[in-house]
Amino acid sequence: MDYLNVIVAAAASWLFGALWYMIFAKPWQRVSGAKMGSDRPDGGRSPMPFILSAIAMLIVAGLLRFVFTQAGVFNPFMGAVYGGAVGLFAITPWTMINNAYAGRPALLTVIDGGYSTIGCAIMGIALVMI
Q1: 43 domain-assigned
Q2: Which residues sit opposite 41 in a β-bridge?
């Protein structure tokens, strides 16, 4: 496994997540139930969510790299398709289950699932381009 590919793919998806949640900040805050301080969720000064999300992106990118190697995924189009499929058909349904049991609005799954799907597609493209 090429570790540089995994790190770059994880970083690309992580940075996309920052953009995604800036764009959808208001609706995400409304439907997630996050208690807000003046400009961020309460406890938002802790670096822990950022550290955990970066670690999670490395784990997902490592898994995608393994799957891509086994499946022979080698071009950006297939990287986007396979990556997006993992986000849409594996991560998003799991997110939906968690949100449904917590009684959260379906819009939260749409926002989070959109990030999972597009973020994994970006990861897939980055993995095959490096």
Answers
A1: no
A2: 36
